[in-house]
Write a structure and sequence with these properties.
Elements lengths: L7 E10 L2 E2 L1 H9 L6 E2 L10 E3 L19 H10 L4 H12 L4 E6 L5 H9 L20 H10 L5 E4 L5 H14 L5 E8 L3 H9 L20 E2 L1 E8 L8 E9 L12 H14 L8 E3 L6 H14 L5 E3 L2 H4 L6 H15 L1 E2 L21 E2 L4 E8 L3 E8 L5
Parallel strand pairs: 4-8, 5-6, 5-7, 11-12, 11-15
Antiparallel strand pairs: 1-2, 1-9, 1-10, 3-4, 7-9, 10-16, 13-14, 15-16
């Protein structure tokens, strides 16, 4: 088992999703059990499904000094940076530690692929239109290049793309960089925007539900795809009341490209390692934000693992019925939701279901519950069995 790690302060964080922009909008939506999913109005070609869309992004071009980076994904990132004063906090962190001592860790599964789709739709004499004839826009690193320009960081700048676990795994990467002395702070960014390739690709796999997704419902039939931008700032020291990253666990099933191990072998290992690094036992966990995609196999396996490993006093729910599955941004968005749950002593509901899957144990919360949350976990399980569990605590938990 891994050794216990020193907790890291989460000095600032924010999220933008279909629930709104910033922490207050998300906290209110969670309190009211108000979901953000709506009928698909993103693609010209009809696809009967629900999506989690951030309003206004298409009408908000980047400032002129960043025009060379203009695409939907970077617009979404810019909108996210504006929330909760995060941009100012990140720039102050760079000034405090020095630009070369702040790592920029970026997570995305689609990057700016929507810009590439647009470029092919708008070909001019066989060439991309001039506004999209910018090589950096069409690479997996377009988000990192943009954010480095905005923030002025000069430390390690890395892009992680491990499907749905991407923006959970950057927390683990940040801990290693700070523990090894490579950096003194890390700006974490997870941004994935809607695009046709993802909507139609998941639909081709038979994984997209025609109505808003129903995590852990007995009659669930697939995911709802959303978009989000989430940011967090990690430092060794922080305010006494700042939430802490206590631990993380990473694993790979290597079982199947799109189906989890039937006994949840990788999920169990990720959970065990997160608790070991946090120095905690399973009975210390008050709340788990589940991966909970509303696909048949994912929820079946995750429900069985949670029912087996945790007692009835631990509460668990999926918030993808609120936001949709935001793919590479899911880990950091659900981290923000988990931290809000801790701040407000609220276990968020698992929305849209009517009859829980029989495999769900007594841990599962299908309606909001008031509950003091001092220790929480967040699960992110990606395609190919690429798993990550994060452990968080209030500032005084250690």
């Amino acid at each position: 088992m891994p050794s216990r790690i020193a907790p890291l302060a989460i000095s600032a964080y924010t999220a933008t999703s279909a629930l709104g922009r910033g922490r207050a909008a998300h906290a209110e939506a969670l309190r009211l059990s108000r979901g953000g999913l709506r009928p698909n109005d993103f693609t010209d070609t009809p696809l009967a499904c629900a999506i989690g869309r951030v309003d206004g992004i298409e009408r908000e071009p980047l400032p002129v000094e960043f025009a060379a980076h203009d695409c939907r994904n970077n617009r979404l990132a810019w909108a996210g940076l504006a929330g909760d004063g995060f941009l100012d906090a990140a720039r102050a962190c760079v000034a405090r530690h020095g630009a070369d001592r702040v790592a920029l860790l970026v997570a995305t599964s689609t990057a700016s692929i929507e810009a590439t789709e647009s470029a092919y739709r708008e070909l001019e004499d066989g060439r991309f239109p001039a506004r999209l004839r910018i090589p950096a826009l069409h690479t997996p690193h377009s988000l990192g290049v943009f954010l480095e320009a905005v923030l002025g960081t000069r430390g390690p700048c890395l892009t992680l793309a491990t499907a749905c676990s991407s923006s959970a795994k950057i927390f683990a990467q940040a801990e290693r960089l700070l523990r090894l002395g490579v950096a003194d702070a890390a700006v974490l960014a997870g941004v994935d925007s809607l695009c046709g390739s993802v909507l139609f690709g998941f639909n081709a796999l038979g994984l997209v539900a025609p109505e808003p997704c129903r995590p852990f419902d007995a009659a669930r039939c697939g995911i709802s795809i959303g978009e989000a931008a989430g940011f967090a700032l990690l430092e060794r020291d922080g305010a006494a009341d700042a939430p802490r990253l206590l631990g993380y666990g990473e694993s790979s099933d290597a079982y199947h490209m799109s189906t989890p191990h039937p006994e949840g072998a990788g999920a169990r290992l990720a959970l065990a390692d997160a608790l070991a690094r946090a120095g905690l036992s399973a009975d210390a966990v008050d709340y788990i934000n589940l991966h909970g995609t509303a696909t048949v196999k994912n929820d079946e396996v995750e429900a069985a693992v949670v029912a087996d490993l945790f007692g009835a006093s631990t509460r668990a729910s999926s918030t993808k019925g609120h936001t949709g599955h935001t793919l590479g941004a899911a880990g950091i968005l659900e981290t923000a939701i988990t931290l809000l749950a801790m701040e407000s002593d609220l276990v968020p509901a698992t929305l849209n279901g009517s009859a829980p899957d029989p495999l769900c144990g007594p841990q599962f919360a299908f309606a909001n519950e008031s509950r003091a949350i001092r220790v929480a976990l967040s699960n992110s399980f990606g395609f190919g069995g690429n798993n990550c569990t994060l452990a968080f605590g209030r500032g005084t938990v250690h």
